[in-house]
Protein: Hydroxymethylbilane synthase
Organism: Hwangdonia seohaensis
Amino acid sequence: MSKIIKIGTRDSELALWQAKSVQQQLENLGHKTELVPVKSTGDLVLDRPLYQLGITGIFTRTLDIAMLNNDIDIAVHSSKDVPTLLPKGIVQAAVIKRGNVNDTLVFKNNEEFLSAKHATIATGSLRRKAQWLNRYPTHTIADIRGNVNSRLQKLKDNEDWNGTIFAAAGIGRIGVRPEEAINLDWMIPAPAQGAIMITALEDDEEVRAICRELNHEETEICINIEREFLNRLEGGCTAPIGALAYIKNEEVNFKGVLLSEDGTKRIDVTRVKKLGEHEDMAKYCADFVIERGGKRLMDTIKRSTKKTNVYSTKSLTESQRLLFHQKVKAESIDFIKISLNRIHPRLLKNEIENVIITSKNAVESLITNYSAAELQFKNIYCVGRRTKRLVEQKIGKVTHSEKNAKALAEYLVEFMDGTEVTYFCSDLRLDDLPNILEENNIEVNEVEAYQTKYDGVKVNDSIEGVMFYSPSTVQGFVKENNAEVIAFCIGQSTAKEAKKHFNDVRVAKVPTVESVIELVNEHYV
């Protein structure tokens, strides 16, 4: 090739070493080359760990742009930093023979801290953090960023740190591995760790043909399996996923792992296939992990890197949190606290003909005070499917139920026998139901079954929408916040209160938490 091959690289010491290694191999084949160093976002932003930046291809994007602009002909990367899906028009042109695949612990003085209950390890990698905490759950992880030399210096300067973790290939290539270092053979490395990848433009056939002369087939087979495993788990370089494939005795061996961020949950997979029969290895292993809870773990991890944009004024269960659209990151807390009251026995001396129950809290109060046999109610009227279900499980058959209190009041006016009802309610309740009944000459005996206390918090500025489940949750929110948000409401009574404070109010199809979640998801499609 007569033209000079422009080699794009990051300008860190390790990246330059890798680029110069490729440059030397190309020049040994008789090609003219030029190094073109550039800075990446990953090199410029050093105050946060990688997984908090939430950017895929943080170390490769600048080089991709340079290549697409024809400023460089090829780019040299640490393979583990390259996204599994390359930009349109850019392809993997070659991989260089792999170096040491292990992670290495660099420590101070000695290794005695490994058996201690408390120790501090510095790493900016979520994968390393999760595996370390899985093995040493009482240890502390400190965030660290920067190039190899700056991280080594930070370890020396920080008295509270016992060690930090590097890719063995990295510290070995630039000759800075200290004596106080051990390989962590129990830690599964990042997919494609220890390998150098060359990328090129897909339509530059001449450059791609030259790069193929540098390609190491065994390394290519192994890192392609690892990268496909990562891709099928939908994980970027910020996910706590480890993968390692190697070839021995004409067999491809694979081991992979997915962990929760704190290391408390771990899913492992291993697989051995004959070389040449390994095509489905990555798919099999990824499916194995997914079927054993991997999808749920990945969904949780993805949400953790996003800013919270929705707040629930009622604590959500784990299964409810998993129902959210991937664009939603929700936090939740109870904005109201419930205190059950004592209900006086004289109220239950005789059978009560007509009883109104509008919440599960009232049911809880009744069954806390009395047994089902003592709760003698002829007709029970309630609001909401879940309240109805709980009443029928704990007290007795429900005569009729409606979606909201106003609709129930209108029904009772027309169809109820008698002219008196007993209403088990909160100290804070809407006026609709008792007002409608009393206006139609139905006497309402209110029994304060429980008290509602406001216990809201001030939410972050990133919150775009808030989920409300009762007028009280709306009131609890506005006591602490004056932000304009989208109000996602469980029913009409809640929406009526929300409209006093917010311009955009939306109502769920049915009065359940899951229906409010569906309402949120529809907004973020």
